[in-house]
Amino acid sequence: MQIITEKLVSKTIKKRASNTHKGSFGRVLTVGGNAQFGGAIILSSSAAVYSGCGLVTTATDPTNFASLHARLPEAMVIDFNAGQELTEMLAKVDAVVIGPGLGEDAKALQTLTLVFKTIRAEQILIIDGSAIDLIASHHLALPNAKLIFTPHEMEWQRLSGIPIGQQSEAKNKVVQQELNGIVVLKKHHTEIYTDEKTFQLHLGGPEMATGGMGDTLTGMIAAFSTQFSSELVAAVVSATYVHSFIADQLGKTQYVTLPHQIIEHIPQAMAHFAASKTNA
Amino acid sequence: MQIITEKLVSKTIKKRASNTHKGSFGRVLTVGGNAQFGGAIILSSSAAVYSGCGLVTTATDPTNFASLHARLPEAMVIDFNAGQELTEMLAKVDAVVIGPGLGEDAKALQTLTLVFKTIRAEQILIIDGSAIDLIASHHLALPNAKLIFTPHEMEWQRLSGIPIGQQSEAKNKVVQQELNGIVVLKKHHTEIYTDEKTFQLHLGGPEMATGGMGDTLTGMIAAFSTQFSSELVAAVVSATYVHSFIADQLGKTQYVTLPHQIIEHIPQAMAHFAASKTNA
Amino acid sequence: MQIITEKLVSKTIKKRASNTHKGSFGRVLTVGGNAQFGGAIILSSSAAVYSGCGLVTTATDPTNFASLHARLPEAMVIDFNAGQELTEMLAKVDAVVIGPGLGEDAKALQTLTLVFKTIRAEQILIIDGSAIDLIASHHLALPNAKLIFTPHEMEWQRLSGIPIGQQSEAKNKVVQQELNGIVVLKKHHTEIYTDEKTFQLHLGGPEMATGGMGDTLTGMIAAFSTQFSSELVAAVVSATYVHSFIADQLGKTQYVTLPHQIIEHIPQAMAHFAASKTNA
Amino acid sequence: MQIITEKLVSKTIKKRASNTHKGSFGRVLTVGGNAQFGGAIILSSSAAVYSGCGLVTTATDPTNFASLHARLPEAMVIDFNAGQELTEMLAKVDAVVIGPGLGEDAKALQTLTLVFKTIRAEQILIIDGSAIDLIASHHLALPNAKLIFTPHEMEWQRLSGIPIGQQSEAKNKVVQQELNGIVVLKKHHTEIYTDEKTFQLHLGGPEMATGGMGDTLTGMIAAFSTQFSSELVAAVVSATYVHSFIADQLGKTQYVTLPHQIIEHIPQAMAHFAASKTNA
Predict the structure, then answer these.
(1) C154 touches chain A (CB under 8 A)
(2) Could you read off the pLDDT of C140-167 as tens digits, one per residue?
(3) Rounded to the nearest 10 degrees, what angle do helices C106-118 and C129-138 cross at?
(4) Which residues of D216-247 are buried (b: 16+ CB within 10 A; e: fewer)?
(5) pLDDT for C57-97, tens place per residue?
(6) Strand D95-98 to strand D124-127: parallel, antiparallel, or no bridges (unpaired)?
(7) Is residue D121 within 8 angstroms of chain C, CB to CB?
(8) DSSP code at position B273
(9) What is the percent of chain D where pLDDT is above 70?
(10) Which residues 34-93 of D have a C-beta within 8 angstroms of A?
(11) Which of C37, C69, C217, C255 to mutate to test binding with chain B, by most B CBs within 10 Å of its CB?
């Protein structure tokens, strides 16, 4: 495996061109957050906004509209139960996150199915949390799109069928090929499986072991992917690196680092890597 | 075109007289924010409050009341669907912002029409976003008021009929004259068309290319206009300058600058320019 | 008039005794905030909590519960339309604020009437904003309680019948005696009329001229009154002083100071005066 | 009594092992917050999250969902009135907090009864506020679980039958034995009664005497208990110590310290003690 280096990240996070507008940095749609798990989609959406995505829309249960806007006025909202609205929004975006706080009930399955049916081949689709479990439990066929899976080890076991103790690089690689997407396997020393290389992350400490951390990563991956779209693998790898890089910085003085704290530091961290690029 | 200078801004942002009260600095009404786009009107209203407007009322969909107050207890709210309430409030204010997150459906059109019908000649009306598109698509007649338009290039194309590649100073100027208002054409090097000069902004980098940035500007323009009302052009020009000035300051350490971050720095930035005036 | 000095404030804000609990510092009930003006009661309640009141309950329209708790989990809420609940809560508190964002409709009048009917002689009642206007317009009889009025000049004109240009110390004093309470007349150089002396505030600049500033003062007066209850006049005078003291500190670097910013600095300001007392 | 020392706390707050995930640090369920007292459960839940609990779910009145998520997207929510949902969630967690803002009406009693009926012997149950009063007033039988009571002196009087003036160590100890749990008796110099020693806290000043402070402690105890579960007494003692330690730090510059401010400083305080352990 190739250890992810700061150099790769610095090369990926490009200095923005002067003559750009919000449309230049992509549109992201985050789908999730039922009445119980609304916080997850707030974190995912916030991470996308703070990572520089130009336009973020959140499809969620209406019960989450007020709390989302109270935290993040920069995002737009739609009801994820409204099929027509969701279908129309899916047509307009460059990347979709599906899963954070989605839940696994019939409505969640319906929403996931709609996304799978509607997504187009050139769109990026980040599949996380409940969405992974729904695929595994309902044996759903995967859509034709640029797929990125972000399972933790237990979700990977369910999706891949490989028990946690036996998740070797070779076995994981085989399933990644079958899935025909990028796999970000979240664990101590997170591994990223791609069509070419496999990457390993040597950042990220136990201060990150808290709920919502994975939801945050999905939004970062979405925004990095739409901004640095010419190299999707580098974008995913860099988002994963920056996520843990920030946590480790905060972890020097904090016993636990909360997801929303990570999010608030993304703009500074990205500026750090964008600036260091010239010397890389 | 005349490049906007710090000197002009410093001259405009006057030191406040001692014997003043909240009524001295004007009343602003922001109209917008349907159920999907509530964040836009939160940003516009927040910008007006942080820019020193004495009294800000937000006319929006009731679904946005809780999130607006959670972020901004300094503002008052009314239901933008309640015609009578909106009409009464319109009678009491010095400046109106219409457009941020208004949407383009039948209700939005009805609200816009009501504002156009009710506004008086001595009132300032800032027309943004959806409101511009509604004017263009429905060929609405403009009301007799102190009009300020804040289109980005695509909205300007729809409103003026001039395709993006052909938006020259001369052509834009012709349409500005027809519109009989000030036009803030948002783009790389934003241009401001007025009855006399045309101004150009040489601040503002790509760190500003994110959703909600234009909504923020509308609130700033409204508050600057009511406070420095003797020179409306200078007020609009100064608001536009300060908006980008703050972004550029934050952009030194941030890859992207979020609208709510800009807003939080307005009081300091205005103090900076008010203080530097004596030397200008 | 006696100019309010830092020495008086330092003498009033006593260092807390070690063996105290939240009950030692009083209970405050804030009443106000209809569907349109919810922010006002959020500010009043927040000011009471940050000023050290042990227990704050907010009686408001239920539409404000979510935004209040999102900003201030330390407060409790009740529906100000529920007569029985309000009556029971009135029996339990040491001080009541009535007015911020109350409005002037029939429901507001009913709530005010209930408070006037229920309040007891030993309780402190701070009467602000809409409540003052309701008293004036409906010629309401005042209850027997420790009354504190906090009008700005226009509200004082309505309450006292003295036109703004003629509000001299002598005339104001006569009405204060009739009202049988303390009057905080908010203006440039705020004046405080009491049974004995009249005080004048030489702090507070035009950076404070923004909506919500008076609401904030009501909560501070309530909390100061319950904590330093042995000298009610000194408590009211000190709250008024600290309110403007903080604004002036912030005003050194801000063009406008927002009420919620004042509130966040109360604990530090009070510590400053409590510490400087030993040398006073 | 044994005075709680920094050394004990440093020994308890262990440096986290590298190869851990959110499941390693326990699951906490907080139960409380009716329509009036929602802030209490927000504070308890926030304290649990900031203290490093891996996964926190809040069972509360649905009216509190929006405000809770606006402050704390890291938590999940369920309706505490939905018996089936609450029962299922109780089965999944390591520690339960019951009481903050629960109220004492019939619904509160029903919820408390359900928790008592469902809790298992190996689970930790922190009983606070209204829950203590309900036990006392309804003579409820206590469940078989790892019980922790967090009464202030008046609640202890109701629960133990010992009047406030007579709450001696010897008498308190007898009741603690009958209750078969740990008792955190909150007062000036808080005392912690356990099966073996009795501890006394020599931190915590009158700056803490404000509403919500006890709610905050419950969340800290829950999270410390699930993380440092091998020594439950040490975990409870350490949470109590850190709670007051932070307040005293903030109290150096603040007249009153608000619960949400304590919460925001927990990660830094825990890092401080975890780091100092090696030298202890």
Answers:
(1) no
(2) 999 999 999 999 999 999 999 999 999 9
(3) 90
(4) bbbbbbbbbbbbbbeebbbbbbbbbbbbbbbb
(5) 999 999 999 999 999 999 999 999 989 999 999 999 999 99
(6) parallel
(7) no
(8) H
(9) 99
(10) 49-56, 65-70, 72-78
(11) C255
Q: Token pair 């404070």 is at which residue? A: C208
Residues of chain A above pLDDT 70, percent: 99
D199: Cβ contacts below 8 Å, ≥ 6 apart: D1, D2, D3, D4, D191, D192, D237
Mutate to test the interface with C, among D255, D258, D261, D262 (most CBs of C within 10 A): D255
Q: Which two tokens stand for residue C4?
A: 């309010």
Q: Which chain A residue has its CA at the smallest distance from C71's CA?
A: A70
CATH superfamily of A2-279: Ribokinase (3.40.1190.20)
User: Residues A200-247: pLDDT tens digits?
Assistant: 999 999 999 999 999 999 999 999 999 998 899 999 999 999 999 999
Instruction: At A239, list the tokens.
Output: 């988002």
Q: Which of residues 4-23 of B touch C (CB under 8 A)?
A: 13, 16-22
- Rounded CA-CA distance D254/D276 in Å is 26
When the pLDDT of each residue in chain D is averaged and rounded to a whole number, the result is 96
Q: Which residue of D has its CA nearest to B67?
A: D70
CB contact under 8 A, C56 and D254: no
User: pTM, whole model, 2 decimals?
Assistant: 0.97
What is the C-alpha separation between D250 and D244, in angstroms, rounded?
Answer: 10
- 3-state helix/strand/coil string of B56-121: EEEEECHHHHHHHHHHCCCCEEEECCCHHHHHHHHCCCCEEEECCCCCCCHHHHHHHHHHHHHCCC
**How confident is the model at residue C198, as a pLDDT?**
98
Burial B138-154 (b: 16+ CB within 10 A, else e): eeeebbebbbbbbbbbe
The predicted-structure confidence for D36-86, as pLDDT tens digits, reads as follows 999 999 999 999 999 999 899 999 999 999 999 999 999 999 999 989 999
Number of Cα atoms under 13 Å in the Cβ half of residue B244: 23
Write out pLDDT tens, residues B7-65.
999 999 999 998 888 888 999 999 999 999 999 999 999 999 999 998 999 999 999 99
How long a stretch of residues is chain C? Answer: 280
With residue B247 as reference, give the H or E element that holds it.
helix B232-251
Report the gap between the CA of C208 and the closest CA in chain D (Å).
23
| H/E run at residue B238 | helix B232-251
What does the pLDDT look like over C193-210, one tens digit per residue? 999 999 999 999 999 999
Give the count of beta carbons closer than 10 Å to the beta carbon of residue D14.
Answer: 13
Query: Residues of D with CB below 8 A from C13's CB?
Result: 255
Q: Do B66 and C66 touch (CB under 8 A)?
A: yes
As a whole number of angstroms, the distance between CA D230 and CA D217 comes to: 20
Q: What are phi and psi of B35, to 5 degrees?
A: -60, -25
Q: Which two tokens stand for residue A160?
A: 């891949």
Closest-approach residue (CA) in chain D for B71:
D70
Answer whether D26 touches A (CB < 8 Å).
no
Chains in contact with C, counting 3 or more C-beta pairs less than 8 Å apart as contact: A, B, D
pLDDT at C139: 97
Q: Per-domain residue ranges for chain C?
A: 2-279
Confidence of residue A19 (pLDDT cuts 50, 70, 90): confident
ipTM: 0.96
For testing the chain A interface, which of B36, B67, B187, B256 should be mutated: the one with the most A CBs within 10 Å? B256
Note whether B30 contacts C: Cβ–Cβ < 8 A.
Answer: no
Calculate ∠ Cα B235-B238-B241, nearest 5°: 155
In chain A, residues with a C-beta closer than 8 Å to the C-beta of C66 are 66
Which residues does chain A have within 8 Å of residue D268's beta carbon, measured at their own beta carbons? 253-255
Nearest CA-CA distance, residue A185 and chain B, Å? 27
Q: Please report, as a single letter, which amino acid is at residue B179.
A: L
